[in-house]
Write a structure and sequence with these properties.
It is built from 11 helices and 10 strands. The chain has about 400 residues and is α+β, with helices and mostly antiparallel strands. Strands 1-4-5-8 form a 4-stranded mixed beta sheet, covered by helices on one side. A 4-stranded antiparallel beta sheet has the order 2-3-7-6, with no helix packed on it. A two-stranded antiparallel sheet has the order 9-10. A hairpin with a 2-residue loop joins β2 and β3. It is globular and about 80 Å long.
Length: about 400
């Protein structure tokens, strides 16, 4: 009797599952297989990277020159507003499609991939998801057509400690007045607008933060000098000083006190982008190492036949694929834990893979005439920007214990 009842129950559950699958064909569980749309974006970005970015990456890096032409081309391809609603000139793609595009572009040129990544994940997506229709007309529509957006969170004394932000926002009738200094703004020299996080009441700590959209040509906005960077040298980064910057009250994104939540939610997205960026760099380093090892001979045989080199290439492959899977998972199932795991593993893997690449090339790996040293420099930053590796590890541990009611 019990066996028959169990069988009937199992049969019913199976039938119910089959019905749910038929009724909800759009439901997606995590898989490493890209759908047709994602594959099309991957192919589009890969072709552009191979044809336009890779041949010019070394020169852009050497000259430290912002890739204006490439960014304009990416705008025409719709990739500078990949996840933005079509109503405002975007493609309306999912995060995984955007992450795949960032990976492929970073594989061709880490600098261009990073510029596209930050513009999309930290600025365009933010305005698209949090902005009012009026804000989107001013701060989003043109930003799918070539204008570049920036994200101003870090300060000289507030990096990972967001609640310690000192930039002040003071109400003044129909305006807000901003005063303060922001650090490490990517693309700020070329940018047309910036999302600024400021406090309207320092005593409230994180509860006193708000987010403001500020046109870069507003009186009182001053860009600092370009920071000379170790890697991604075609990316510009500088300080931003705000002195009595008056903006309409309507330029506040969200409401007073929501700034911290908005920042944290956007950083969850940003970590996916940086993880994808790191995977692209790691893949480029693996490609460089394999291509070199296939041609180089030592002890009468190709390097690929030497056990030590083969072991390095194997480790590199495993690290790249592991980081890619975690990044896909984070882009598919967005959470702080998933995005932190992806960025933690992808950043560490990119640095390790690039190090192996230099080692395989030997003396040539140290030469600026070869790509290995550029991949090595580019990879190192992925453990810092977008949230340092140390913080990502702590976040993963926090949410792991929270899931198990162990805090």
């Amino acid at each position: 009797m019990a066996t028959n009842a169990l069988f009937k129950s199992a049969k019913l559950s199976f039938c119910t599952l089959q019905y749910v699958k038929k009724a909800l064909p759009q439901v997606r569980t995590f898989t490493c297989k890209l759908n047709e749309q994602q594959q099309a974006i991957q192919e589009l970005a890969r072709d552009f990277a191979n044809e336009q970015l890779k041949p010019n990456a070394a020169k852009l890096d050497l000259e430290g020159r912002f890739p204006f032409d490439h960014i304009r081309s990416l705008s025409r391809l719709g990739l500078m507003g990949a996840a933005v609603d079509e109503e405002y000139g975007g493609r309306g793609l999912d995060y995984l499609s955007l992450a795949v595009a960032v990976e492929e572009l970073s594989r061709g040129c880490a600098s261009t991939g990073m510029i596209m990544c930050i513009h999309n994940f930290l600025y365009a997506n933010l305005v698209n998801e949090k902005g009012t229709p009026e804000q989107k007309e001013v701060f989003l529509r043109d930003f799918t057509r070539g204008s570049i957006g920036c994200f101003a969170l870090s300060e000289p004394d507030a990096g990972s400690d967001v609640a310690n932000i000192k930039t002040r926002a003071t109400p003044d009738g129909d305006y807000w007045v901003l005063n303060g200094k922001k650090s490490w703004l990517s693309s700020a020299i070329e940018g047309s607008a910036v999302a600024v996080f400021a406090t309207f009441d320092p005593t409230l700590r994180h509860k006193g933060l708000a987010c403001f959209l500020v046109p870069m040509d507003t009186e009182g906005v001053f860009r600092g000098k370009k920071e000379p960077l170790m890697g991604v040298r075609a990316v510009t980064a500088c300080d931003l000083t705000l002195e009595e910057v008056r903006i309409p009250r309507s330029y506040m994104l969200g409401h007073q006190g929501e700034g911290f939540r908005i920042a944290m939610e956007q950083l969850d997205q940003g970590r996916i982008g940086i993880a994808a960026h790191a995977v692209g760099i790691a893949q480029a380093a693996l490609d460089t190492a394999i291509n070199y090892a296939k041609e180089r001979e030592a002890f009468g045989k190709n390097l690929t036949r030497l056990p030590s080199v083969k072991d390095r290439l194997t480790d590199m492959c495993i690290m790249v694929e592991s980081a890619r899977l975690l990044t896909y998972r984070a882009a598919t199932e967005l959470s702080t834990k998933n995005s932190s795991m992806a960025k933690y593993v992808a950043g560490r893997s990119a640095a390790a893979v690039a190090d192996h690449c230099v080692q395989i090339l030997g003396g040539r790996g140290l030469s600026t005439n070869y790509d290995a040293e550029r991949h090595y420099r580019d990879a190192r930053g992925t453990q810092i920007y977008g949230g340092v590796t140390d913080i990502q590890k702590r976040l993963v541990g926090h949410f792991l214990l929270k899931e198990h009611d162990a805090l």
